[in-house]
Write a structure and sequence with these properties.
Elements lengths: L1 H21 L8 E9 L14 E3 L3 E9 L11 E8 L4 E3 L1 E5 L5 E9 L7 E2 L2 E7 L4 E4 L10 E3 L11
Length: 164
């Protein structure tokens, strides 16, 4: 009985080794840092570039995205083909990599989306898709909690006071 158990164990280990040798290669892991802020639009009152998750129609949501390689190096536009934000309703918004600040203090992927004036209110999830040079895609999504997701609320954006 003991030799039968050892034979079964040896066979099992051989099958595990064989299966791992034939497993398809997985896309490399990437690490994402992301936040959403209110983007400045002409005539609107700030604050801008401050963390937020609730936005009114006609306001602009800006995504700031840093993608990191497993070794800790930044995955910039030389490393990635593209970074795209996909809203919960299927709208896809391409980001671009570049400097931010005047003078620039940081480089990351970014883009903004102005919420249409007839857009429905409520939580709107999103995902971020990073496409590698070989075409493989790594996807990231924020926590799926309605209270922390991007949310469109009723109302009009506050307008900046007129300058004299």
């Amino acid at each position: 009985m003991k030799s039968l158990t050892l034979s079964a164990l040896a066979f099992s280990l051989a099958m595990v080794g064989s299966a791992s040798a034939q497993a398809p290669a997985q896309a490399p892991k990437l690490f994402f840092e992301n936040d959403i802020v209110r983007h400045a639009l002409p005539g609107q009152q700030g604050p801008f570039c401050v963390l937020a998750n609730q936005f009114k129609r006609k306001e602009a949501v800006a995504w700031r995205i840093r993608v990191m390689q497993p070794n800790g190096a930044v995955a910039d536009n030389n490393f990635l083909k593209s970074v795209v934000v996909e809203l919960g309703n299927g709208i896809k918004l391409p980001a671009r990599y570049g400097p931010h600040g005047n003078p620039p203090t940081d480089h990351f992927w970014s883009m903004f989306w102005t919420i249409p004036d007839d857009f429905p209110t409520g939580s709107l999830g999103y995902k971020i898709h990073a496409t590698m040079a070989d075409g493989s895609v790594v996807t990231w999504a924020p926590f799926n909690r309605p209270s922390t997701l991007l949310t469109v609320i009723a109302g009009e954006p506050a307008m900046a006071p007129a300058r004299n």
